[in-house]
## 1
Amino acid sequence: MTYRAPVRDQTFILRDVLNLEAYADLPGFEDAGIDTVEQVLEEGARFCEEVLAPLNAVGDKEGCHWSADHTVRTPKGFKQAFDKMVEAGWPALMADPAYGGQGLPAVVATAFQEMISAANMAFGMYPGLTAGAYAAIHTGGTDEQKALYLPKMGAAKWGGTMNLTEPQCGTDLGLLRTKAVPAGDGTYRISGQKIWISAGEHDLTENIVHLVLARIEGAPAGVKGISLFIVPKFLPDADGNPGERNKLACVGLEEKMGIHGNATCVMAYDEAKGWLLGEENAGLKLMFVMMNEARLGVGVQGLAQGEAAYQQAVGFARDRLQGRSLTGPKNADGPADPIIVHPDVRRMLMDSRAILEGGRAFMLWTSLHGDLARLSPDEAVREKANDYMGLMTPVVKAYLTDKGFKIASDSMQVHGGSGFTEHFPASQYLRDSRITLIYEGTNGIQALDLVGRKLAAKGGRAVMSFFTEIDAFVSENAADDALTPFVTGLKDVKDKLQDATMWLMQNGLADPDNAGAASTDYLHLFGLTALSYMWAKLAKAAHARIAAGDTDPFYANKLVVGRYFLERLLPDAGAHLTKLKTGASLLMTLPADAF
Amino acid sequence: MTYRAPVRDQTFILRDVLNLEAYADLPGFEDAGIDTVEQVLEEGARFCEEVLAPLNAVGDKEGCHWSADHTVRTPKGFKQAFDKMVEAGWPALMADPAYGGQGLPAVVATAFQEMISAANMAFGMYPGLTAGAYAAIHTGGTDEQKALYLPKMGAAKWGGTMNLTEPQCGTDLGLLRTKAVPAGDGTYRISGQKIWISAGEHDLTENIVHLVLARIEGAPAGVKGISLFIVPKFLPDADGNPGERNKLACVGLEEKMGIHGNATCVMAYDEAKGWLLGEENAGLKLMFVMMNEARLGVGVQGLAQGEAAYQQAVGFARDRLQGRSLTGPKNADGPADPIIVHPDVRRMLMDSRAILEGGRAFMLWTSLHGDLARLSPDEAVREKANDYMGLMTPVVKAYLTDKGFKIASDSMQVHGGSGFTEHFPASQYLRDSRITLIYEGTNGIQALDLVGRKLAAKGGRAVMSFFTEIDAFVSENAADDALTPFVTGLKDVKDKLQDATMWLMQNGLADPDNAGAASTDYLHLFGLTALSYMWAKLAKAAHARIAAGDTDPFYANKLVVGRYFLERLLPDAGAHLTKLKTGASLLMTLPADAF
């Protein structure tokens, strides 16, 4: 079985749960009627299934090739697939129509992003990083910069990258050393070394636009002295075409456990010519425009890799004949039953599916709020959507990647010994997905961002809105018997999350280490609450279809998976609450040298 | 930081918790006074740290080399290290003195096995599999077979393997096809293909003794027609030296995600000469002698890989300067604080340590029961120890490997982006440890063995003994205030396990799928109970030392980690109980094609 994009599930969420049609008055949405969207996704699915998925193992086995002339060759077939993608206009799906983009809603682009990240995550990172750099230039660039870069980058004719990390600084950007010296003509000369630069050099695009964090000579120490620069590989000439080679080079590739098809570069800047993007010393804020895009994108990758791995596990479990059902043969004429008859195999598949279907709704629901934050004419809607984007971003990133990796690991487990060999794709999913827990801020950093920054922002307004929204859903649906287990489960987990939030507000203030000690359990409790809310919405929509006489088993199956979520995944909520309330004291007792 | 064997922790467990000296009247134990044992372990530690650990990354990067002449070359340095190991007599540690072994207790050998599996798991599999084959011949061989093979294999001059799996059968050995034809002279001709044969071919020993499951012509179908054969690579000549080459060959190596230093072979037997081991058609029973040894060994590997990965994470967390403590700088003169100041980093380290220290006690405690089952003069002791070995084996295997992999993954997480590169050892630990959840019976199979076979055996006698033992510990120590949290935690989790056991006995009979559906949660609840019991014993021993005036911080630290276990790991018990009681119905609802 190869990858099949979950268009059916995506359109159900977009149509029946998020009610996409209700937003037809927003710019971009007028062209995004659900039938159009379905067509776009079907076409995207075909591209991902037929062009990208077959290259996934190729990229893993072959990897990228660095040469002493500082060029990087991507795996066989990547360039042709990239050209096809550009030609079909996929990268421009969400780009600004003012710069040649199609201007479709982010929520539609996210659905496509899931497919590309499932079919070939290493490949998908090339256009993905470009989109992040695009967003930063779109937000912070001058009109001239926008006119020069956005049309090319929006179409993925030029690539884009993020250059943050240096050997001595990853999370802690205050330690950054790369220098920018004013050249006197309004440009700067950038010098320094950057590491782990995804897509830093490759043969897919005619130019690569590096966004580089650097410190202008004489700038304040720490994070307040960091600026962001546009540093293209080839300096655009007067016509906006790639001209003279800039003084930067990929001096090596990182050997990694996974995503071999993506070039992870060590970049050397040696008085490279750069243009300031945004304000001096305000680079970090702009970098976070990219970073937030990227974090959501990584959450999508986690889910996507989980989906792809799950599909392989299902295929294996249906085909592999081994042993007999505990309740008597189910394939009496065959030598053995398919292993999908075994409850413990199904446990892994159902665990995965309950996360994937609930997580997909959560991802698209969050993405829709991104659209509302940008596009709604109603300020109250924009404000709430903006609050939600801040609050949900670390949860989408960390929760979906933690679970995506767990699903990849369970998928390997369903395969038994075959999964550990490189003849089956389980190993690649496990290895590729593992990076999603780390990059764009480790999941621990996400948890700290959630409890340390996002909860407290604006007096806790965002999380209070979320509680209010859930309360309203609970009371609106309390009388609907068909939804009782979903409403009860949601109310219960929301109460736990509220309890945890209160505990954090009191104890995190008294001792910030309490917040750090609680952060990961809090984030997981938050994830369970968000997915419970999504499952309640999914169940409501499925019930509505069934009540309207739709006999497609899709809806009845949806309710089975939802009830499974309540019975088998939600019980972890209590454990998270108990653990997070234990505070920091035992954690902090041992001196560092006693570990 | 390189690997440091945890001799201090091991000797604390052997001396203070298991009270090794109390068994001095048992054969083998008379020479195993605690001071001697400590010396042996110290020497073993030096060998593992200095000789094996430096070869771990070499084995991973280089892998094994197969040639068209069917030879396999192990990674550079493996042969020299193996020769040193044989010369030092390490493999003979536990071997029977009647055949030239040292006859030390299994519990001591297990401690050494932890070190070897931590320092270099792929290397350790070569002597490890030999020990399994040794055990099968020791149990089921004729006097002649024992005299011929045991001295050589006990010293690891000859290697040994287990040949079970074929392409169409792994877990389900009833599907096995390899044939054995009587040659008329008491020997057999073995023909068939075996896959995933660890250490099936290599350059470390002068001979390799394959134990091969095959079906004698005309034998009953299914598992009742399977016999076990001794099939040496070189047929022993009249003097017992390697003679004529047997008709068997390694026809290829498996490409795997990890344990690259161990040769995973496809073996072809083409009328190879073999000798029946044990009775005709009773091969499976004898194979389980090997298998049970091997399962315990795999549990040890899981723990060992976790320990090695944990040590690397600690080293990184102490050295890596990044960000500041939430409560103000702790390294004010440096550019940043070491990341070990962060509560969420400590959470991962403390989670790991609470499992490792409790798990080490559980592993050694179980291993001591192996000694008692073999050696105790008291039949009641032997019987109970035997019951325990049956009951605990799947728990040691599955719980310690699940957790070992989790620790390896957390260790990578502590490393951040560095962990995903192959410059740090985190990736190898993650990749190597992943196989332990799969081989020698997947962890799902272990869980099914526990609930389907081990619980019910002899009317549930084994698990009832375990409850009685815990009850006795609880009442003996109920009045000791210093132990209150440990005793309370133990009583609570034991009550939950007992509740789950009763639920299983009632509902598993009504519908066997309920047992399958509950199995993995039950196994984890069992693991938490076993570790709670171990932590109560560890705490009691540490308190006794402190009460006696010993001021070594080792003991106070032990209590901190133990209380952390109670606060931060034990809360999962309730979630496991809730989940397992939901039964099989939702799991079994969807038809296979709806996945």
## 2
Amino acid sequence: MSDVPYKTYLPENDIPTSWYNLRADMKNKPAPLLNPATRQPCTADELGHVFCEELVQQELDNDTKFFPIPKEISDFYKMYRPSPLVRAYFLEKALGTPAHIYYKFEGNNTSGSHKLNSSIAQAYYAKKQGLKGVTTETGAGQWGTALSMACAFFGLDCKVFMVKCSYEQKPFRREVMRTYGADVTPSPSDTTDVGRRILAEHPGTTGSLGCAISEAVEYAVKHEGYRYVLGSVLNQVLLHQSIIGLEAHRAFERLGVKPDVIIGCAGGGSNLGGLIAPFMGEKLRGEKDYRIVAVEPASCPSFTRGVFAYDFCDTGRICPLAKMYTLGADFIPSANHAGGLRFHGMSTILSQLYHDKMMEAVSVEQTAVFEAAEFFARTEGTLPAPESSHAIRAAIDEALRCKREGIEENIFFGLTGTGYFDLVAYQKYNDRTMTDQIPTDDELAVPRAKLP
Amino acid sequence: MSDVPYKTYLPENDIPTSWYNLRADMKNKPAPLLNPATRQPCTADELGHVFCEELVQQELDNDTKFFPIPKEISDFYKMYRPSPLVRAYFLEKALGTPAHIYYKFEGNNTSGSHKLNSSIAQAYYAKKQGLKGVTTETGAGQWGTALSMACAFFGLDCKVFMVKCSYEQKPFRREVMRTYGADVTPSPSDTTDVGRRILAEHPGTTGSLGCAISEAVEYAVKHEGYRYVLGSVLNQVLLHQSIIGLEAHRAFERLGVKPDVIIGCAGGGSNLGGLIAPFMGEKLRGEKDYRIVAVEPASCPSFTRGVFAYDFCDTGRICPLAKMYTLGADFIPSANHAGGLRFHGMSTILSQLYHDKMMEAVSVEQTAVFEAAEFFARTEGTLPAPESSHAIRAAIDEALRCKREGIEENIFFGLTGTGYFDLVAYQKYNDRTMTDQIPTDDELAVPRAKLP
């Protein structure tokens, strides 16, 4: 073993004090959001009906490179940040690989994931604007939990629309949010127009992120003093999540190590976009080169089997259109797919970068993901979230490639969170009743045919 | 806010390399374990049938002050240690107290508690002795999870007898252990003589720690290549857990801070004994003075309402007798009592120290504990385990006393773990269906009347 410690924590006074806006270094900027009625780029005024004012500014700003982190947010960050950069010595040994494996672990907070990095920022701006509360959707529950914690901290009302199948399968997720004072409604519900419409069209539906987004947006727009907040996809979210990559970048500098390949799981892109931000910046500026790999579930393969086109972000088609890799706003991944990473589209920033061949993408099957998760739990101790385990799978595959080729690369991946609330999925894996759910070409063609 | 950072992590090379044996500094040594047949002090040979050899040496050694931590264990520690010493700035602010509140957080590992500190040590010595596997009992499930992780790491078979009511109420705890390869049996079971006897005498019993201990010991004694391991009460466990206090002590030295009052929850004493070890050592040696406070549930009040006497550690009466504060080996706390801290007795070390008036003890009621837990979750972010929340309750009460008296004390408590697997209890609290279960004098008198 080398001189690199198992875990590297930045000192508190070295935690980054600004977020990094990757768009500032992109030559090809991400395409703007379009107003669904006019098909013209959304103005700040239009977005301000849905989102908090300062967040709209962050959303639309493609030029400002650094946004200072307000003191209230950086104080909150100090409760659970810096997160450790971990050298996976035990995993390396168990794989017998010459590769050096590193991961940035974002699960050491009660929300169990990186989502808290953005929820506390969004809650802060909502509070600053004098709002009563915020609404959101949650699928696996990580984002809803993170937002509940943030709202409890700032004394904001928090209204969460939770995808119905998750609501039923994860009563404890619901209970954590309740402990933090949030109001949690299974979606689709009869409390919104769009929910009632979806229920009428698809009786017995177990819901989808796209439905829950529509309901949360409608509630925010129709209630005085409320705005909608979102845990992924948006530019502002990737901006907040850049704290992950910035910390990791500084930690690697302290260690004198340069990662060769950087791997992150990708659903809407919140973790991946944050993790890779400063490294991608160097790559865009031509300063350093890295292989950057997005890992997505084979059951929801936006990058690897989607199309790059304008599409709706929600099933109810009331949200702006985004140009992104998409499977079609009507695509709903199999209910058998565990955990998150269920969004039909992808961050416009990451979509543009992928289109420009600045990064790669792979899709992995669910049982292979849980095989990696169990292996990781037993060797590295931490029980990973299913989402994070997509990155683990890809990192292990890269480490085994290094073993075959006899080369010592530095592999770096994002371990976004813990799997404490995913034990129904682990049980299915342990019982060998888990299956892979890969959509056929026909199943993908139908929702894509409805692209606007 | 002062110069003290929110979180203090020791550098990896400053993690203690030896465990500290508090008994070496005790003038009045803890009373020896007695053989239940002969009522004579247990010999190493006798204990060697039940426990691993090196652990027996640690158990019986009242004189060696420091035990070097083997490299295999200290490497494993580096996966999740050092744990942070946290300054609870947000809690102080929310309470409006002049007190400075610190806590040592042991929940940042998948077992969710401090128990891993001893399980990895015990698994290591079992492996070194060439054993096939180990058996144990678990109540709330923290210890069973920690032992499962440790056994997976060293490739040992792990047989866990889980108190039946926990087994049924906490399927996810069971599933985590299964993910780590452990075999989990609800106790009492029909797989052991003592289990069958208890089932015949108490049909429909939901089990107790005392029953599960008896079953685990019987299984170990009757199966070649197995030994029994225990997560609390024993001297060896407090020895391993001294890592908590040693790290905290060094961190306080770095900060130039001296705690005035040190608070830990107490069930069998594993956390409390480890947390206070170096501080109590200073107190015993007359170097420094600290108030040291044990916090126990009003529903299982060994210190505050028990007697100091020799008693059985298990319901089946097959284990050695220990001189301790006890409610009687037949005492079973109310099934409504959430979480751990359900053992009828207490560490002999801590019992002796309490008897010698070196520490205080308070008991707290369950609803007051959950009130503190929720308050803490909302202010400090972390969802605490019910066990840990006993210490939070007492720390808050001390901080409020400081507020009333207008004095700035340094309050230090152990936050032993997280509450991810305790959400049924949180739900009861949220629904206001949780009750306090305080045994009457008569209810305590009956089991105590059967003391040997």
